[in-house]
């Protein structure tokens, strides 16, 4: 069989996949890349197809024009990995029968090494979904959320590394900083200032500190003090942004890991009121 004919057979071998609840920290079901590999790998073995990532090219540059894989986004206190990946499919029976594909990988995380893992996993997962037209049972909400399911070392080990990263120091991003190094880093000066500003501007819970509860009107008045698009806006204003506003509130309620618990709790109140 030719490589293209084998692709057809592999596609036939992958059934519809059922989303599951993998993590108690999220309130939705999703698919992991391992769910795809569970069927894709045996099919590739059966039909004799190899798959490799043969090239990784950074798509961003520093102030000197040097390529960088990882850079710090101070507005949201995250590291961003971005690159073009070249994929190679090869017919085991005929090494001259191959197919090269380029995909774009982008991912963020509080640690630079995790940003690469996030980018690779997400890019490959959605490439496989489309390449083999895998039925995934409707909308995929994890496209709009932080990918807890994709992070290696979830749980205590990951939290330990996050704490270690906050205490250690590394130079600003350059073309020599690649996320696979796993080197703990300290935030650049502008990033530290952004975090300090966020901590200083955390608001007390309006009329809720005593009871531990927000009214809807209280929640609407809470001001978001982080991020790029929503910094300085009240949650009531954000809620008026339609579907995007609801997505932003869901992120604040269940994914935001910063110090502003007032925003977190207020967002949950508004989401509950809207349901």
Protein architecture, described:
There is one protein chain. This protein is of the alpha+beta class. It folds into 2 domains: 184 residues, 2-Layer Sandwich (Enolase-like, domain 1); 74 residues, no CATH class. It has 9 helices and 6 strands, in the order ααββββββααααααα. The strands form 2 sheets. Strands 1, 4, 5 and 6 form a 4-stranded antiparallel sheet that branches. About 20% of the residues have low confidence.
Jot down its keywords:
275 residues; alpha+beta; Enolase-like, domain 1; two-stranded antiparallel sheet; 6 strands; 17% strand
Describe the secondary-structure layout:
Elements lengths: L2 H11 L19 H15 L1 E10 L1 E2 L5 E2 L1 E4 L4 E14 L2 E16 L2 H20 L24 H12 L21 H12 L15 H6 L13 H5 L3 H12 L6 H14 L1
Antiparallel strand pairs: 1-5, 2-3, 4-5, 5-6
Helix pairs in contact: 1-2, 8-9
Pfam family, one: ERF
Protein name: Single-stranded DNA-binding protein
The pLDDT mean sits at 76
CATH class of the largest domain: Alpha Beta
CATH topology of the largest domain: Enolase-like, domain 1
> How many individual domains?
2
Rg computed from alpha carbons, rounded to a whole number of angstroms:
22 Å
Number of strands: 6
Low-pLDDT ranges: 140-159, 165-187, 201-211
Largest sheet: 4 strands, antiparallel
Strand proportion, as a percent range, falls in 15-25%
Structural class: alpha+beta
Residue share in helix: 25-40%
Number of helices: 9
The N- to C-terminal Cα distance equals: 53 Å
What's the shape? Answer: elongated
Report the CATH architecture of the largest domain. Answer: 2-Layer Sandwich
Q: Please provide the ordered H/E string of secondary-structure elements.
A: HHEEEEEEHHHHHHH
